[in-house]
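Hi C.,

You asked whether I'd gotten around to modeling the 137-residue construct. I have! Everything is below, sequence then structure, no commentary in between.
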Amino acid sequence: MIHPAAALAPDAITVGEALEAAALSAGNKPIDESDAAAIQAAETRATGLGHVVPGGVGAKAQSAAAHNIRTTRDELKTKLGDVLEDATEKLIDDKPVTREDAEGVINAEIRNKPDLATHPGGVSASMAASARLNQEE
């Protein structure tokens, strides 16, 4: 059986690139638990390791979300752009985004959000858009 990512074009958008796109579109948004969960899911899918990498973008996102809960002033909170800038370089491995990857990231984000919604332009939106573009190629 061929892995779904292997069937994509060589110039397909990777998970790291999708995370960087989220940093551009929603970079000023303070990271919350749902963002951290989405980033962790994306990193886990990119690396294929089945767990968050210590010191990786997922761990940094979780740390930022914990910091932000204790921080009252928005200007002092860690933002998506702070963690996801240069995500491609920070991931220990990367792969093209598939529909399955996007669905996993979306599920992780909404499970950690009281209103069960994703943030427009955020990590899930970027992963979903990347998966759609990759399928069109």
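If it helps when you're writing up: The longest helix spans residues 33-47.

Thanks,
B.
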